[in-house]
Amino acid sequence: MSTGEMRSAPSQTKSKLWVDIIIFIVFLITMAPHLSGLPVHEWLSLSMIFGMTVHLLINWDWVIRVSRRFFGGLNMQTRVNYVLNWLFFIGGTLIMISGIMISEVAIPSLGLNLVGRGWYKLHELSTDAVLILLGIHTALHWGWIVSTFSRYLIQPVLKLFVARDRRDTAA
Amino acid sequence: MKILLRSLLILSVFSLIAGMMIVAVKGALAVAASMGLLEGISEPIRHYSPQASAAESEFDGYKVLSLAGRWILSMGKNTFVISILVAAIVFPRNVLRKLKNPRRT
Q: pLDDT over 90 for what percent of chain B?
């Protein structure tokens, strides 16, 4: 690994962390349409396509590496992780498509009328399924989440308090 | 250019899967309708009304507190579901790891 690549690794990890935090918060907001209101729910949900694309672009190397070696030398956990990620992607696509089909604000405002029967129940079921898949996805990446949170969020805040204590003591 | 191509690839896969879903669901609904399985099943009536939404969003201190409380409960509920799954997977895995390598702390 070159010096440039080594220097870029921490900043890429920080970018991944912030993108994932934003996606998670947006996901939580979109899971409460009766509170956020239908316009916010629909437009924010459509923006998740962008969030999903950014998340996949940031993790592109992992996706390609594991895809190439899926039937070769990989440990079982990585394979399980890969399959779950695909299920997550398919579930997310189903939520998006069913949501577009039952849209009352965003899609009609674009001049389209796609009302279709049966999509409402599918939207509800796929949302529940994706929530469970999100839990499993989070669990499988828990080690990374804890270490990255600690390194980029908790420790910098703790350092501020330690620096302040030292300044007060010195004064 | 690389990022643009990768984005287009991701969106293409998304569109392909979406298209397959639409075809599958429409096909399944057509078959179900022809077999009479959809009779008596009604979709919930949903009519979004911007005027009603504006009326509901008029400022009222009690409503704001109630809304904030419901937001917290809703987010808490979804986070709780995720936490249960995380605990159910991470905790046994850590226990197994410690049992396999008792000297590692």
A: 18
**Radius of gyration for chain B, computed over Cα atoms and rounded to the nearest angstrom:** 25
Nearest C-alpha neighbor of B13 from the set A86, A21, A61? A86
Classify the complex by whether its ipTM is higher than 0.90, answering yes or no. Answer: no
Q: How near does any CA of chain B get to the CA of A74, in Å?
A: 19
Tell whether A45 and A117 lie within a shared domain: yes
**pLDDT by residue (tens digit) across B9-31?**
999 999 999 999 999 988 888 88
Instruction: Pull the structure tokens for residue B99.
Output: 């049992």
Residues of A whose CB is below 8 A from B22:
97, 101
The pTM assigned to this predicted structure is 0.80
> Between the CA atoms of B53, B55, B57 and B62, what dihedral angle is there, to the nearest 10 degrees?
-130
**Cα–Cα distance between A43 and A100 in angstroms, integer?**
10
| Residues A85, A90: Cα–Cα separation, whole Å | 9
What residues does each domain of chain B span?
1-38, 61-105
- Which range of residues forms the domain containing residue A17? 3-140
Measure in Å the smallest separation between the Cα of A170 and chain B Cα atoms: 37
Q: Which of A28, A53, A94 sits opposite B21 (nearest CB)?
A: A94
